[in-house]
Specification:
alpha/beta, 11 helices, TIM Barrel, Glucan endo-1,3-beta-D-glucosidase, 9-stranded parallel beta sheet, hydrolase activity, hydrolyzing O-glycosyl compounds
Length: about 400
Amino acid sequence: MALTSRLLGVLLGITVPLLFFSRAEGGEVGVCYGRMATNLPDPATVVQLLKKNSITMVRIYDTDPTVLRSLADTGIKVTVELTNEELPSAATDQNFADQWVQNNVKAYYPATQINGVTIGNEVFKEASQLNSQLVPAMKKVQAALARLGLADAVKVTTPIAFDALKTSFPPSEGAFRDDIALSVMSPMVDFLQETGSYLMMNIYPYLAYLSTPGMSIDYLLFRPNAGILDRNSRQTYFSLLDAQLDAVYYAMEKLPSSSLRAGGMRKLTAGGGILEVKLGEIHHPTRGHHGVGTRANAQAFTDGLMRKVRGGNSGTTSNRYNRLATSAVGTPHRPNADLDVYIFELFNEDNKPEDEQDFGLFYPNQQPVYQVDFVHGGTGAGPVQPSYCTQGGHGPGRSGP
């Protein structure tokens, strides 16, 4: 996680809903299990905590043997990481990639249900000198998995920070930065499509909220709000996260593919469906950050996020802009797209930089920072705002939070 990102713009506006998209089925919520903290419970105890809370996916930032052995025979899906430090060797040496996969994936699979390998973490931000080596490393690791018959079960991707986009306002103008769009992102999306994988994004909506004066905090926290209009697409958003997700989808569509160099819109399909975006990190702080980080705000954000991912019904509210809505699933541009997310993160970690220490769902003593229900999604504290509507024709609209 890197909180010093170049903050990107988001949307402002409103419109009256006339048509609502059909619902998707819902995604899955996991957690990031970082270990940069003192007095953390041992991995075997952590696994019991995961099971107790019905957490079915976990992302780790390495391939620690003790952690991987502890997760064996649990049914918990595990995403492991080939680190930024290991990336240059994987990019240039197929034998290194083969041995890495043998030692860190095959050695534990299938008892430990490893289903993903992330190549580096936020390379564009944290190790930009490796940009040109990122896709070659992804391809060599995927080739190593294929040699062992694991390419269908274990997908290769890389976590990308949101500031890889140069434009995110409005979402329909979403575009990747010029220094990576053609050289890295275009071949990467080709690779993800060809292998049936997914794009992993690390997105922290509260950062965009902090950088946008006048934005309603309800728009950030999935609560009823006036909505925000994209005047190009004529879509109205009621969720900052959906605006950011759609900016990513539009940015991918603008990339030329290997079979579409003459221009036009990329057909984002993999295995007959939409190329998926998974969130490798997302959460809200419980302290600091100019007063936005509070336990109440973090709980509201987590509740709304989990209900959205799970496909929870929005319920009935008095807000006239959403009274006809029945689902908070999908986004305006991708109404049928499910969303898997990894909440950053399992524990508060006191050895991280100060502005990254208060994102945990649990304290190191395993007591919850606030209550979260991973079975049903959220805490049942109230309805979540539907995420979007689409306007027919050119009806009324205004700018403002």
